[in-house]
Amino acid sequence: MRWSVIILFGFGLAARGQNITITTVNNAPTAFNQAACNANDQIQFQWTSAASSTICPTTGQPTTTTTTTGGNGLPSSTVNFPLYISIAGPGASCITTLANGEAPPTCPTDVLGCPQEVNSGTPATFALHEADFFQSALGLDGGVGTTSSCPANQDINFQVCMLLDEPASAIGSTIDNYIFGSLAITYESIPPNPPTISGIVGGDQRLVVSWTTSVSLPQGYSLSYAPAPAGTTEACPVNALGDGGYDYSGGDGGVTTVTVAPTATKYEIDGVSDDVAYYVWMTVTDPAGNTSGDSAPCVGIPRKVDDFCSMYVAQGGKNCGGVGCGYSSATASAVVLVPTLLAPVLLAARRRKRR
Amino acid sequence: MKGLWAVALAGLSSTALAANSDTSDRFNFEFRVGWVHPEIDSEPGLTFVSPQSIDGCPAPTVTGGPYQRAFGKGSFPLFELELDYEIVRLFGTLGVGLSAGHFIAIGHGLYAYDAPNEVACLAGQPSGDSTSLRLIPVHALVVWRVDEFWRRWGIPLTPFVKAGYGPTFYWVDNGRGDTSDVDGVRAAGSRWGWEVDVGLAFVVDFLDPIIANDMAQNWGIDHTYLFAELRMNETGMYSSGFNLSDDWVAKTPFGGIGASFGISFEF
Fold this sequence. Notes:
The complex is a heterodimer of chains A (355) and B (267).
Chain A: H1 2-16, E1 20-24, E2 31-32, E3 42-49, H2 51-55, E4 82-88, E5 116-119, E6 125-129, H3 132-137, E7 155-166, H4 168-171, E8 177-188, E9 196-203, E10 206-212, E11 220-227, E12 256-260, E13 266-270, E14 278-285, E15 298-300, E16 305-306, H5 308-314, H6 329-354
Parallel strand pairs in A: 2-8
Antiparallel strand pairs in A: 1-3, 3-6, 4-5, 4-7, 7-8, 9-10, 10-13, 11-12, 11-14, 14-15
Chain B: H1 2-19, E1 26-36, H2 66-71, E2 76-89, E3 93-111, H3 115-119, E4 126-145, H4 148-153, E5 157-173, E6 181-182, E7 185-186, E8 188-203, H5 209-219, E9 223-235, E10 250-252, E11 255-266
Antiparallel strand pairs in B: 1-2, 1-11, 2-3, 3-4, 4-5, 5-8, 6-7, 8-9, 9-11, 10-11
């Protein structure tokens, strides 16, 4: 009997201590920029909570239903407990506590500045238009999903707030239990600083460019290069170029631009001509999608390089070719594998023979 | 020469098999690693780059023969696998086998001695491009393992001698990851050569006979050895082209001497 009391007491505490975890769907960035701030762009969220499994350990599903309110891009769901979603603007905080018996605040259904009641359900996802952050949290009411509400050259922090109401009847209590969660979302319309090209090394028909950036977790880089006028020498950075100087991006052979992976810190430009100078410059795109201006350009020159065979011939060796040139590296590797593959077969055969 | 070798090997095998009355079929599989320094720079007629400056530029920082300039003075590991078939008892076992290995030396390409590089004082200096020499030695072997010390008197040492012959396939890669091509000649091919190995194996079974017996019963592995060997070898020393003999231990007028160690399993 004593054990039963303790277990029930513990159950009650556990139910009241749960949190909601909010993440973006597919680990999308938790930042957006001005260009994306329009009626069509949304941020997809998903959330998890141990609440339902705590309440309904047998089925894992809640037992009550509520009426859907919907609106403002919030999903219509089928079952479950009342779920409230709100956006807290800069300087504001999500609601994280409610007194015993206190109900969540209610608002008009077309304003997201305070909690909106929707239904939790399956799948546990919802979407918010990026423009709604300003319309709701900053009072920049240009109408839901308008671009005019998104200011330029500002970084603003928001929070997406969630509140799940576990009805008293569902948890065997006399009062409702509330579960809270939040996720920081950043609006950024200030472009990042350009990356700094830290080195450019000329190889045989290639250039290896390395750089640094102050942007954490960039979305990616754009790297451009163009032939420079004859007589241009290697330098990095090229201080005399850029604004008011030579238009490095308009080289004789035109500009080639490539996209570089966000995790890269260097890039190899292949297929360029030896002994021709090239301007190289790049931009970075931050997590919110803002693209920096051009970096200071550098000049690199691909140069003829002797590999081992070239050195051998240049220093008096006859030639590097020889008998049996008609094989591939795959063939040679297969030769090496013969003893490896044969040994276990023979070992297995001998074991079978002994038995 | 190659044909004669094959005939001799086949004859030895068949004769021994016919005479084999007191041994069961046995195989020996071994893995070994050694450090290899090809004797390429010993090839007659090669010139050596000395540390002389050109037209006021700094002296080149890498000098010597082509191998040393590309890969330095050090050696690189050679990993080899070998499978032997023991065909007759002769104060030990006499068998034939096949070995194959993989070696790669990786170094820096050097800026070529052309006008633009000389003007920039880069000619002969290390570049950011890599270059590599890859070897795949494949040898047919005759192997004599004198395991009577262990069998008769319980001394856990087994000397062995091997003699082998076969090709060493090679190719050279440039900084773009392609096989080098100089004047239309692709830098790939093979060089034939021989080797004679002398080594000593320690019978690991000696340390724990219970585990050794368990391996024999459950895995079919009768004996396990740890070994070290010296390898007298010659590959391409007397013909035009790369001299791939290994002189990691010593250099002789007849070829190089290398060394390796490893583990082998008799089953």
